[in-house]
Amino acid sequence: MIDFVSGLARERGFGPKRILEVELAAEEALVNILTYAYPKGAGDIEIACRGEGGSRLTVEIRDYGVAFDPLSFPVPDLLVELAIRKVGGLGVFFVRQMADHVEYRRSENANVLTLTFTNREPQKWVNSTHTEGT
Amino acid sequence: MESSVRQIADVSLIRIDGRVDHATAKAFEEVIKPHLDDTGGAPLPKILLDLGGLSFMTSAGLRVLMIAAKACAAQGRDLAVAALQPAIAEIFKISRFDLVLTIYPTVEDGLSSLSSEAAALWEAG
Rounded CA gap, A4 and A10, in Å? Predict the structure, then answer.
């Protein structure tokens, strides 16, 4: 599934680094579905991709498991000291960081996560959620 | 994912090649875990991960590194990584893993900072 998505990014002329970012986002999204939508194991996952213009790739991932909105997950606090930093929470964070746009909707009995990627150079990331003293 | 381990003086140098993702994170953990045991010997070896051959890492791999970093910090010893490829360096930067462990540009830099004895042995080949 990951190879399918990254292959489409390659066809659209995405650079090697951007392809890895697309792979990362796709893998994290799929692992989340396995973890939260299908906690007991197997279930169907559908992936539909479409290009809008040459340099844009939209990936729609649909599952029929437990309703869960990955965008409701808290953003991890990355600036706290190691001893109190939480171990998890980076999967959804990477999906948000790597995709240009992420959208979730519950459609009848399905979770539908739509990731949009453009062939951009990665943005310099700034932790805008951290406030001094918290 | 492939790995190899060398003991150089008081540094355990662990090389990781390939991809550490959901499918291989368990194997990655199995490579790291034995080095985290407090064997009672003092001082415990420092750990340097040579990631020069690592092409891809997801949150599953970072999770293993985070647990290892916490264990090492609790034991009062160093855990460091070296020779990150640009894509991996970006992932470390975005997830602020520069605050989790020490990152060196090269294996030589890492060894020099961690242990003069290990650096001398490395240089001697």
Answer: 10
Please give the residue of chain B at the shortest CA–CA distance from A18.
B87
CATH of A2-118, one of 3.30.565.10, 3.30.70.1290, 3.90.550.10, 1.20.58.1000: 3.30.565.10
Q: What is the distance between the alpha carbons of residues B66 and A87, in angstroms, rounded to a whole number?
A: 6
Residue B58 touches chain A, beta carbons under 8 Å: yes
- Residue range A64-123, pLDDT digits in tens: 999 999 999 988 999 998 889 999 889 999 999 999 999 999 999 999 999 999 987 655
- Look up the CATH number of the domain holding residue B51: 3.30.750.24
3-state secondary structure of B29: helix
CB of B100 within 8 Å of a chain A CB? The answer is yes
